[in-house]
Amino acid sequence: MLQQDDAGFLGRTQLFDGLPRETLEAVAALATPRLARAGQAVFRQGAEPAHLHLLTAGWVKIGHVSGSGAPLTIRVMQPGDVPGCVAAFRRVPYPATATAIVDSRLLTWPREMIAELMERHPRIATNALGMVGGRTEEMLQRSREFATEPVERRIAWVLLRLTAQAGQPVEGGIEVAFPLSRQDIAEMAGTTLHTVSRTLREWERRGLVSGGRQRVAIRDAAAVRAIVGDE
């Protein structure tokens, strides 16, 4: 069953920004709600996109496995994001797997229905183009970091981005609001679990961060920003 505020939520997303209320209500009525349990795949790398997914609650990570079998977490998506949008819009296989980090709710539309909505409401197509451009720019930035930045700086960038995106205040710092393992950080930074564990232990000794089982908090944000050269 659709939640009563789905239309209002759609109006606050990038994809449906600028549409009138009556259009948002019509689009919401066409959606099918979906619950993805923690650890469940929303879609898998290599599959053909049959639906467009919009995250309304929870967190979803986008992970790619290279030809050599090396895992890489590309990004973490929050409510309002559209996992797999580039593949759905371009009608190509998913380049990555989307996995729910916590129990998450999505709205889905058949791909053909979204194409019809774009023809009927050009504003959706314009918004979609902006989203695709943003994802491309983000991937170029990540590629530059992997090619040019030392690993300690990449790890610091991961923690700064996650606390900016999903930080919650804790005593003496700010903690990532969803479960985050050392392996997750390694996949986001393009390095090994051993390197992340060694780096975080040193940072904990210096009072920059703290952590536990699947949790990480930044204790000294200025020092972490200094690592990436942003003082």
Automatic annotation (TrEMBL):
<dbReference type="InterPro" id="IPR050397">
    <property type="entry name" value="Env_Response_Regulators"/>
</dbReference>
<dbReference type="InterPro" id="IPR036388">
    <property type="entry name" value="WH-like_DNA-bd_sf"/>
</dbReference>
<dbReference type="InterPro" id="IPR014710">
    <property type="entry name" value="RmlC-like_jellyroll"/>
</dbReference>
<protein>
    <submittedName>
        <fullName>Crp/Fnr family transcriptional regulator</fullName>
    </submittedName>
</protein>
<keyword id="KW-0238">DNA-binding</keyword>
<dbReference type="GO" id="GO:0003700">
    <property type="term" value="F:DNA-binding transcription factor activity"/>
</dbReference>
<feature type="domain" description="Cyclic nucleotide-binding">
    <location>
        <begin position="15"/>
        <end position="118"/>
    </location>
</feature>
<dbReference type="Pfam" id="PF00027">
    <property type="entry name" value="cNMP_binding"/>
</dbReference>
<keyword id="KW-0804">Transcription</keyword>
<dbReference type="InterPro" id="IPR018490">
    <property type="entry name" value="cNMP-bd_dom_sf"/>
</dbReference>
<dbReference type="InterPro" id="IPR036390">
    <property type="entry name" value="WH_DNA-bd_sf"/>
</dbReference>
<feature type="domain" description="HTH crp-type">
    <location>
        <begin position="149"/>
        <end position="222"/>
    </location>
</feature>
<keyword id="KW-0805">Transcription regulation</keyword>
<dbReference type="InterPro" id="IPR012318">
    <property type="entry name" value="HTH_CRP"/>
</dbReference>
<dbReference type="GO" id="GO:0003677">
    <property type="term" value="F:DNA binding"/>
</dbReference>
<dbReference type="GO" id="GO:0005829">
    <property type="term" value="C:cytosol"/>
</dbReference>
<dbReference type="InterPro" id="IPR000595">
    <property type="entry name" value="cNMP-bd_dom"/>
</dbReference>
<dbReference type="Pfam" id="PF13545">
    <property type="entry name" value="HTH_Crp_2"/>
</dbReference>
